[in-house]
Specification:
The chain is mainly α. The chain has 32 helices and six strands. α16 (247-260) packs antiparallel against α17 (266-278), α19 (299-311) runs antiparallel to α20 and α24 (381-389) runs antiparallel to α25 (397-409). The structure holds zinc ion (2 copies). One zinc ion binds at residues 564, 587, 594, 596, 600.
Length: 600
C-alpha cells in the first residue's frame, strides 16, 4: 500500500470523521496507525466519535503487525472511560494472538488502570472472545468461570454465545459439560450441532458423535431451517467414522451428503478420502480424490490421498502422486511425512532418502523417525545411527525404540545395548523394549544376558501396554482385549479359535513364539499368542458374518508377527479378505498374502 497522503496528519484537525473513516481500510504499516491515532487525538474525534475509535481499535488489534496489538492495548488503557466496544476490540485481538490467555487477564480488568477509573461493562461479545481464548489454551477451569459469569450477566439465552461456550468445553476436553450445555439449550442452530459433533468426534467419544448425527439426520426433514445440517456437519460425522473405522456408517454419511447436495464440496471430499482410507477402502478413497477437479484440489486433498496410499502399502503410488502435485500447491510437513511413511512401508530406501534430503520445510522428529526406521530396516544401521546423531534436537524414546527394533532385526548387539541404555536413561519402561533386547541376546545364544534382562524387568515393575482391537459388525462396534472373556459370545469365539488353529495347522502353521517373553514355557507362550485381541476380533467376525464377507479390524498397537501369519492363513483357509488397521498402517490379507508384503 502507498503511504498515506502526507497531509493527512497536518490537516487532521480539519478532517471530518467520515474522511478519516474512509482512510481506515488503507492503514497497513505501524506509521500509518500512529498517524491515524495522532489525527484522532488532534481532531478530538477520539472522544467525540466513539464508534470511529472502536473501529480503529478493531483494525489495530487484528493487524498482523507485531507492534499493533500492544499499541491497541496502550490506546485502550489511555481512555478515561473506555466503552464496551473498545474493550471488545482488544479482547478479540488478544484472543486471536499467540498469547490468548492475556485476553482473560484483560477481561478480569487486570490489564486496565486501577479503579476508580471506570471499567467498561461486559457483554455477550466480550464473553464470546474470552471463550475462544479458553478453547485455544485448553483452560477448562477458566471456561467454567466464564460459564458462571455468563449466567450472572443474563446472556445465557444467546444461541451463538452458548454455542461458543459448548465449543470451548468440547475443546478443553469437557465433553460431558458440552453435552449438558447442548441439552439445556432451548434454541439451537446448526453451528450448535456441529460444535458438539466435532467435539465428540475428535475427542474420546466418536461413537456418541455418530449417535448424535443419526439423531440429527433422522429428523432432517422436520428440522427448523436454522438447524438443517450442512457440510460442516458432514465433515464432523465423517471424522467420527474415520476414528472408529466404521465403514457402514461412513457410507451412510456419504449418502446423506448427496441428499444435502454437498458431496462435491472439497472439504467434504477431503473428509471422505480420509474416512474411506481409515475404514480400509482405498479404492473408494481414490475414487473420491479423482472426482475432484484438478483446479479444486487442495493441499489437504493431496495429503489425505498420499496418506491413504501410504497406509495401504502403495508406497510407489504415494511417491508418484507426490511427484505429480501441481506446482501451485506447496507440500507441508504432513505431505512429507505421508510420502516418507509410504517409502518406509514399501521399503523404498533410496526414494525415501531422496525425498528426505529435498525437504523444503525443516524436518521434525517424526520425519527423522521415519527415515531412521527406513534405513534401519534396510540394514543400513550405521547410516541410521548417524542420522540420529545429526539431528538438531536430542533423540526421543520413539527414535531409540526404532533403532532398537532395527538392531533386533539385524542382530546388532552393540547397537541394541546402546539403544536400551538410552531408553533406560529417558525413563522408558515398557515391556516391548525389554523383549527386543532379550531377543537380540537370545539370537546370539547369550542366555546369561537374557536372564539379566528378565531380572531387570522384574525389579523395575515394567509397564505393559494393553493390546485391544475393534471390529464393526452390523453397525455395532465390538471391543476385544488380549485374552478377554467379556464378550457375550466369548465361548463361541474361543471355539472358533480352536477351529482356526486346526484348519491353519493343516496349512503348515507353527506359532511364532519369538514375540513372547523368553521366561515362560513354550506351551504358555503359545497360549499367550492365541488370544491376542486381533485374533479374538477375527474369530468373532468369522462367526458373526456371512461367508465371504470382508472382515475389518482396528488394533491399537502394531500387529505382531504371529497374528500376521495367522491372518494370512485365515484369509486362505476361510476365503475371506481381512483388513487390519494397526497403529502404523493397513494390512489387507487375501488368499494367504498381505498387501504389506510382510514389511511393516
Ligand atoms: Zn499378535
Ligand atoms: Zn501385513
Amino acid at each position: 500500500m502507498p503511504p498515506l497522503p502526507s497531509t493527512a496528519a497536518a490537516t487532521a484537525a480539519a478532517t471530518a470523521p467520515q474522511q478519516l473513516e474512509s482512510l481506515l481500510p488503507r492503514l497497513a504499516t505501524l506509521s500509518h496507525y500512529k498517524q491515524f491515532h495522532a489525527s484522532l487525538l488532534a481532531s478530538g474525534h477520539l472522544h467525540s466519535h466513539p464508534s470511529l475509535r472502536a473501529r480503529f481499535l478493531d483494525r489495530l488489534a487484528l493487524s498482523s503487525h507485531p507492534a499493533a496489538l500492544p499499541h491497541a492495548l496502550l490506546l485502550l488503557r489511555s481512555l478515561p472511560s473506555p466503552a464496551t466496544n473498545d474493550l471488545n476490540a482488544v479482547l478479540r485481538g488478544l484472543a486471536a494472538s499467540p498469547h490468548p490467555a492475556r485476553s482473560l487477564l484483560l477481561l478480569a480488568g487486570r490489564l486496565l488502570p486501577a479503579p476508580p477509573q471506570p471499567r467498561p461493562r461486559l457483554d455477550a461479545l466480550s464473553l464470546s472472545f474470552a471463550l475462544k481464548a479458553t478453547a485455544r489454551c485448553s483452560d477448562a477451569a477458566a471456561t467454567v468461570q466464564l460459564h458462571a459469569l455468563l449466567i450472572r450477566l443474563g446472556v445465557a439465552a444467546d444461541v451463538r454465545l452458548m454455542t461458543t461456550l459448548l465449543d470451548s468445553y468440547a475443546k478443553c476436553g469437557g465433553l460431558a459439560s458440552a453435552r449438558k450445555v447442548f441439552d439445556e439449550m432451548s434454541v439451537r442452530d446448526v453451528a450448535t450441532w456441529n460444535a458438539l459433533l466435532a467435539g465428540l468426534a475428535q475427542g474420546t467419544e466418536p461413537n456418541l458423535a455418530l449417535r448424535l448425527f443419526h439423531r440429527l439426520a433422522g429428523s432432517f426433514r422436520g428440522l427448523p431451517p436454522r438447524e438443517e445440517p450442512n457440510e460442516v456437519t458432514i465433515v464432523a460425522a465423517l471424522s467420527a467414522c474415520a476414528q472408529i473405522g466404521a465403514l457402514q456408517d461412513g457410507l451412510g454419511v456419504h449418502e446423506f451428503a448427496r441428499t444435502l447436495g454437498v458431496e462435491d464440496n472439497v472439504r467434504v471430499c477431503n473428509a471422505l478420502i480420509d474416512m474411506y482410507s481409515k475404514c480400509g477402502s482405498l479404492s473408494r478413497a481414490l475414487e473420491v480424490f479423482y472426482s475432484i477437479k484438478l483446479e479444486d484440489r487442495t493441499l489437504v486433498s493431496y495429503n489425505a490421498t498420499i496418506q491413504a496410499l501410504s497406509m495401504h502399502g502403495h508406497g510407489a503410488d504415494a511417491l508418484r502422486l507426490f511427484d505429480e502435485m501441481p506446482t501451485w500447491i506447496e507440500p507441508d510437513e504432513v505431505t512429507y511425512l505421508a510420502v516418507l511413511c509410504g517409502c518406509n512401508h514399501a521399503g523404498l530406501v533410496d526414494d525415501g532418502h531422496r525425498v528426505f534430503n529435498a525437504m523444503r520445510v525443516p524436518p521434525n522428529v517424526k520425519h527423522y523417525g521415519t527415515i531412521v526406521d527406513l534405513l534401519g530396516r534396510a540394514g543400513r544401521l550405521a547410516e541410521a545411527y548417524d542420522t540420529v546423531m545429526s539431528m538438531p534436537f536430542p533423540a526421543d524414546i520413539v527414535l531409540w525404540q526404532t533403532l532398537l527394533g532395527a538392531a533386533k532385526m539385524h542382530g546388532d548387539v552393540e547397537l541394541a545395548e546402546l539403544a536400551a541404555t538410552k531408553l533406560a536413561e529417558l525413563g522408558s519402561n515398557v515391556d516391548g523394549d525389554y523383549v527386543l533386547l532379550s531377543n537380540v541376546y537370545a539370537s546370539k545364544s547369550r542366555w546369561a544376558d537374557v536372564d539379566r534382562v528378565r531380572d531387570t524387568m522384574r525389579s523395575n515393575d515394567v509397564r505393559k501396554v494393553p493390546g485391544f482391537s475393534y471390529t464393526e459388525i452390523d453397525g455395532v462396534m465390538h471391543k476385544f482385549i488380549n485374552g478377554d472373556k467379556e464378550h457375550p459370545r466369548w465361548r463361541e469365539i474361543y471355539r472358533a479359535l480352536d477351529d482356526i488353529r486346526s484348519r491353519i495347522s493343516e496349512l503348515g502353521y507353527e506359532p511364532e513364539t519369538n514375540n513372547v517373553l523368553h521366561d515362560i514355557g513354550e506351551e504358555e507362550k503359545q497360549y499367550a499368542l492365541c488370544y491376542h485381541s486381533e485374533k479374538l476380533a477375527i474369530a468373532f467376525g468369522l462367526i458373526a458374518t456371512p461367508p465371504g464377507e470382508t472382515l475389518r479390524v482396528i488394533k491399537n498397537l502394531r500387529i505382531c508377527g504371529d497374528c500376521h501369519v495367522v491372518a494370512k492363513l485365515i484369509s486362505k483357509a476361510y476365503g475371506r479378505v481381512i483388513i487390519i488397521r494397526d497403529r502404523a498402517r493397513f494390512h489387507r490379507f487375501e488368499d494367504g498374502q498381505c498387501s504389506c508384503s510382510d514389511y511393516w
